[in-house]
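Design request, tokens follow.
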């Protein structure tokens, strides 16, 4: 039995070794995508092109512009004379933000009624991530600048208007609020699922397409031995990809590994076996490798929607949240982020682990039943 399984697995690995283009795609493709996404998200959003409409033209308004530029979020590169020019710049995409300083801004800051000092910030919401960053930065800079000006003009502001509230904000698990610490592990988990699906999906489909499937079935090999033999190369390649991506994530892009590395490695292998069921099922029902890869893309799109990577699951309608619990990758991403970013153990994410085990049993049992009927 083991000898027959080993021969099937060896045969599959020989096929993959001869197809250099496919192997390069399966190994280098996910790694390259991870690197590009990590590279794109590891840098903070800075130097957004900004237009300044300064109708006040006082020392106070010029000081505000300098404060905005010193934040490094905004680069004041245009100074339109009126709102129409600002609108044209925003419509053309020449700027991501516009700041309108009305007349009387400086006078409002130096008067006792500081609420008279108003500033309008217009943001390009077509890029919501940049817009949210710009909004938070603009609020912080303007509030800080106004407060400093009041201190200079009136002295001890707290003594006149009551006690100043001291706000202590602390961030846990991702202290620097790095977007890469969220997106890179998520992308790594997503790529792991896709590689496992693709390698498993083309295994049996390739035999049908090449016309060797019938020859394989007249041998003494049992159907379940064939399935296991086809699954082994998928596990090897998927796990190798995961190890490469994990090393790049930790050592190149500095994503923290706060939890147990051995636990993550064991659970990654477990997750591969869960996703393997879908890949083998696709391979068994597909007649060509192209059909198999198209079905993998369909599953990838569904997984992307319900995984919580592209859209937060908590903000979905209740029915879609229930559907998301049926998608294995949703639970895997939670487990992986808990281990890497929070340093959590099984007692924290045991519910996700149980859900993953149940889904794996159902998926693989269904796959084995369908494939044995089609192969026998």
């Amino acid at each position: 039995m083991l000898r027959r399984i080993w021969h099937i697995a060896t045969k599959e690995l020989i096929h993959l070794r001869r197809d250099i283009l496919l192997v390069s795609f399966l190994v280098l493709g996910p790694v390259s995508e991870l690197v590009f996404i990590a590279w794109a998200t590891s840098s903070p959003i800075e130097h957004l092109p900004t237009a300044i409409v300064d109708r006040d033209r006082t020392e106070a308004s010029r000081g505000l512009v300098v404060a905005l530029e010193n934040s490094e979020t905004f680069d004041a590169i245009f100074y339109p004379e009126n709102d129409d020019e600002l609108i044209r710049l925003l419509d053309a995409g020449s700027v991501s933000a516009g700041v309108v300083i009305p007349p009387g801004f400086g006078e409002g800051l130096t008067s006792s009624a500081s609420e008279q000092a108003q500033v309008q910030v217009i943001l390009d919401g077509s890029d919501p991530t940049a817009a949210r960053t710009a909004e938070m930065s603009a609020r912080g800079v303007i509030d800080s600048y106004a407060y400093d000006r009041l201190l200079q003009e009136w002295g001890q502001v707290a003594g006149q208007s009551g006690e100043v509230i001291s706000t202590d904000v602390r961030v846990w698990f991702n202290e620097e609020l790095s977007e890469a610490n969220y997106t890179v592990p998520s992308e790594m988990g997503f790529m792991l699922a896709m590689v496992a699906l693709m390698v498993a999906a083309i295994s049996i489909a390739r035999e049908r397409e090449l016309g060797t499937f019938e020859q394989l079935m007249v041998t003494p090999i049992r159907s379940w031995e064939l399935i296991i033999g086809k699954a082994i190369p998928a596990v090897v390649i998927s796990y190798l990809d995961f190890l490469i991506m994990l090393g790049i994530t930790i050592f190149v892009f500095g994503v923290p590994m706060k939890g147990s590395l051995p636990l993550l490695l064991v659970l990654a292998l477990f997750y591969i076996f869960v996703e393997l069921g879908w890949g083998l099922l696709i391979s068994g029902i597909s007649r060509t490798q192209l059909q198999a890869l198209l079905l993998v893309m369909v599953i990838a799109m569904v997984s992307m929607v319900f995984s919580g990577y592209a859209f937060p699951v908590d903000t979905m309608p209740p029915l879609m949240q229930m559907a998301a619990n049926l998608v294995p990758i949703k639970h895997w991403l939670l487990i992986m982020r808990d281990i890497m970013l929070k340093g959590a153990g099984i007692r924290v994410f045991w519910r996700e682990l149980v859900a993953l085990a149940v889904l794996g049993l159902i998926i693989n049992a269904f796959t084995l039943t369908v494939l044995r009927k089609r192969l026998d």
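Comment from the thread starter after seeing the answer: thanks! The chain has two domains: 2-41+177-375, 45-161.
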